[in-house]
Amino acid sequence: MMSPFTIAIDGPAAAGKGTISKAVAAHFDLAHLDTGLLYRAVGARMLMGEEPISAAQTLVAADLENPDLRTAEVAQSASKVAVIPEVRAALLDFQRAFARRAGGAVLDGRDIGTVICPQAEVKLFVTASPEVRAQRRLAELTERGFETDFDTVLADVKARDDRDMNRADAPLRPADDAVVLDTSELGIEEAVAIAVKTISAARD
Ligand code: CDP
Description:
alpha/beta
């Protein structure tokens, strides 16, 4: 493939973006960037006492390897630093360059189709009901050895959705030209199959 081909995958917390993005990147042999990790890394550094804007401005690759990035505490912290325009601005160039790298890329996040890469060749907005998303996140956290319960996870997911959708800068919303994929009633294989089909149609 000669020109960059960017696939933007956005959606609310625990909707299945990560799993779908990884599968799609493997299928089409594209590089993948989980942009949530950038915000989680800034959030983790804030929890360690750093000022979030300077943390975002000095982020390094090693920050993304912090094993604690997947905790619920870091997720909440990520959505708090994500409302700060200077934090978002500090992370912009890296994401844009990744999106347009030779060979193409898959990026997943909240604002890829709307702000980071409005010219993406394919935009998917992956969503599901809050209850389904909380159930999936509970299974994931339990599997990783964290002790929590459904009501706590549901409250966390809703608090984060609320912050992500109602911030002034780059709020979570589907781009006008995004294909909405509601995975509430879909298994992971079905969801991936629909995503692959949608992308294949756009590539032809
Ligand atoms: O994996 P999950 O969907 O739970 O969250 P994530 O994608 O790791 O994102 C963590 C938080 O980072 C989100 O709740 C957003 O507040 C923020 N984020 C953002 O603002 N913009 C992005 N492109 C990606 C994440």
